[in-house]
Amino acid sequence: MTPDGMTPRYAAEDAAASVTDTGAGVVTNVSRRAFLLGLGAGALVLAVAPAIAADPPRRYGGDGMPGGLKDDPRLFVAIAADGTVTIINHRAEMGQGVRTSVPLIVADELEADWTRVKVQQAPGDETKYGNQNTDGSRSVRHNFEPLRRAGAAARQMLVAAAAARWKVPAAEVVAQNHTLSHAASGRRAGYGEFAADAAALPVPTGTALKLKTPAQFRYIGKGKVGLIDNRDIVTGKAQYGIDTRLPGMVYAVVARPPVYGGKVKRHDAAAALKVPGVLKVVPLDGAPIPSAFFPLGGIAVVAENTWAAIEGRKALTIEWDNGPNAGYDSAAYRAALETASRAPGELVYDRGDTYGALAKAERKIAAEYYVPHLAHAPMEPPAAVARVGADAAEAWACVQAPQAGRALLAGLLKLPEERVTIHQTLLGGGFGRKSKPDFIAEAALLSRAMDGKPVKLTWTREDDIVNDYFHTVSLERIEAAVDADGKPLAWLHRSAAPSIGSLFGPDPKHQRDFELGQGLTDLATAVPNYRIENPEAAAHTRIGWFRSVYNIPHAFATQSAVAELAHAAGRDPKDFLLDFIGPARRVDPTTMKTPNYGEDPARYPLDAGRLRRVAEVVAKAAGWGRALPRGKGLGIAAHRSFVSYTAVVVEVEVADDGTIVIPRVDIAIDCGPQVNPERVRSQMEGAVIQGIGLATIGEIRFAEGRAVQSNFHDYLLPRIDAAPRAIHVHAVGADDYAVPLGGVGEPGLPPVAPALANAVFAATGRRIRSLPIDTQLAGWNATGTAAG
Amino acid sequence: MVTLTVNGREQRFDGNPEMPLLWYLRDVLGLTGSKYGCGMALCGACTIHLDGVAMRACVTPVSAAQGRAVTTIEGLSADGSHPVQQAWTELNVAQCGYCQCGQIMQAASLLKDKPKPSDADIDAAMVGNLCRCGTYTRIRAAIHLAVEKTGGGA
């Protein structure tokens, strides 16, 4: 099973030779069998028309990301003489389907026959491929336009090559489904016959580039293409980071400080070294707070196999200095956040006179919503193999950000970046955890300590949960009121949550703009008196991105409070939600100073009409308003995130003992055009289940500075018996190519928990303000009779 | 010395017989289709068949396989043609795919015992297999599809 071709090539600089075929787990040299369009190595000029404005315009979207966007077909397309088309995918595959959906964009414009397309994974190199940081629901959203250009340019180069050899006008040559033809002369040829000629031609740009019309799309928007890695996945051949094997490889695990900021006071390795198979015990330095992407340090055990390393680690004796966070206790911290949220916090946004309106209003609510820390717990824990030589390093890793791994290794190993190669394997889940390349650095440091032997570093599940970059913890206090007509009048939202900024610098103790911009400052609401405050919340552990990030607590609080206020006003929650959003209109994001996910405020306004529409579509589809007996209920929530619009209706049944059954969930998404509707659907299904999990059972608590939970017996994830009988996904606006693309991987998650909490209220009259629900509903029906 | 059969081939192991089968399969034999997920039989990513019955390789010592037949995902079918593998492919069950080898091995074992399982049977049999991506509704559908493919006689 060891992939024979996985021989190391230190910092291969040849464009064609530095490509890892993740699907097959074999490094192949494309240039041996394929003609890469273009001449490969060296600097490449971005083929987009320069802006003419006198002042350089602010860059948005992918253009504003490090590395920017690339649309040069020579980077992404190789065509072999036998016609096999190889498309380079430069984004991380972690279950969202990018290894299918991203190459599909190129293949469509290229008019390639998908059955003759192979996908190869790019190594981490942002200078070459453009931005590779796979998070923020950006892969398809940012790459749709440049990769269409790349595919179309390659198609036109093939057409031009055929026209030249056939001595006919290029306009008369048709490229269709892997075939070039000229009707008048009856000539036909496959793509392979003209690949070499085409590669020598200039790349068409600007007005010379002829994109398809959406009506001509062969794959985009159809959802008929299966996953490119399906076969490898179902036969066990798919290669994840943890599956990498190199000749002479040794295996390592690390005992890390259990408390953030802690370090080893003293250790004794004698017993560990006696465990059969253990080769070496290696102390690792850790970075002080803020640790950013640097390893936490600790004591590593290197062995002949993973099990020996784990057994060796058990035999270590380590005394820890737990450092400044030794007292972190999640119950005490929650109380501190509650206290903070009961006094005015840093002002974020203000319109009208919220305090005045609240003071005068007769019908109002005040509620505090709590969402605990969560661990990402991807099924594949962090794992990497590294081989470090004197003047070069190479690593294979399940990393969302290979470019960040490259920079980290270059810094730690004191090598120039071009001497560091990061091969990106498949990721067995990511959810934001694998945006951080700390584990690659551990593998590299250990390889150096083992004199350059390849080292596989595996995080056990306990490591993964105890030393995660945890999802933030949050206390959201909302005070809100309706007017005499039962319409939303005033809304005060105080959001207290430690910031991810604490990972990279002095703790800001307040959420930063990009965090507030996830469900607070980007909220299109018609409430006339509206105020957002941000009380202090210090960080006591590593805080990191978790799928949909601060949208989780912000949406849970807001969408729960909307339903609470509807109840206080005696209104239907769906009708009231629509009033809360207000009439269809486009709000300029700059008026709320929201970062808008880095997108152009003119192209991506806060579109109240789109938010209303997903809510209306999902409500209708779910049969909103149908009568249900006590113990059953429907709940609704709607939310904009990652410039997409989602709404959810959950149907719930609550048994007398508080057990929750979810027969059905409806979710509507408007993410603009859908390149791969099949994967959009699967992302919505997965988000629904992940949302149910965090709403009902997910929680990481801290005591004496360390995470209390450590494996799946106490950190609970939803299992198949918790999955709804049916999840109905409703696509809204998927055919409107006038609208720019929105994100897909994350937007499904935020509305799920509040929709579920609202359904629970409809079923039981019990309002859930603290997640997870866990046993909170036990005995809810002590005096009544539940349905079902 | 432990002697066992792995995917039809006889193997001898003279290392520590207490080593869990999972690490023997992955690190010694290089069969990486069986996945590590928890090491405590809590997630099912490592599910294999021991004499045809689904087992968690992460808590099964190599010694327990003495004289017995181990089947891993690599040996479930020669070419990915097992009805469960076909159904998984047809319905695009996988998201990240990491847990799916274990899911497929568990589902194949279920269908051997119960050729026509109900949703409740499926939930009961598959409850030990975690999927963090949340592919459960498709897993249910794929198991029903596999039943159709075999006419209920897998």
SSE layout:
The complex is a heterodimer of chains A (788) and B (154).
Chain A: E1 20-21, E2 26-27, H1 30-33, E3 35-36, H2 73-76, E4 77-79, E5 85-89, H3 98-110, E6 117-121, H4 126-129, H5 139-166, E7 173-176, E8 179-182, E9 187-190, H6 191-199, H7 230-235, E10 250-255, E11 263-268, H8 270-274, E12 278-284, E13 298-303, H9 306-314, E14 317-321, H10 330-341, E15 346-351, H11 354-360, E16 363-371, E17 383-388, E18 393-397, H12 402-413, E19 420-424, H13 438-449, E20 455-458, H14 461-466, E21 474-482, E22 488-496, H15 513-516, E23 529-534, H16 551-569, H17 573-581, E24 586-587, E25 606-607, H18 608-621, E26 632-641, E27 644-654, E28 660-670, H19 677-696, E29 702-703, E30 706-707, E31 726-731, H20 752-764
Parallel strand pairs in A: 5-6, 10-20, 18-19, 22-23, 28-31
Antiparallel strand pairs in A: 1-2, 3-4, 4-5, 7-8, 8-9, 10-13, 11-14, 12-13, 15-23, 16-21, 17-18, 17-20, 21-22, 24-25, 26-27, 27-28, 29-30
Chain B: E1 2-6, E2 9-13, H1 21-28, E3 47-50, E4 53-56, E5 69-71, H2 73-76, H3 83-90, H4 100-113, H5 119-126, H6 136-150
Parallel strand pairs in B: 1-5
Antiparallel strand pairs in B: 1-2, 3-4, 3-5
Helix pairs in contact in B: 3-6
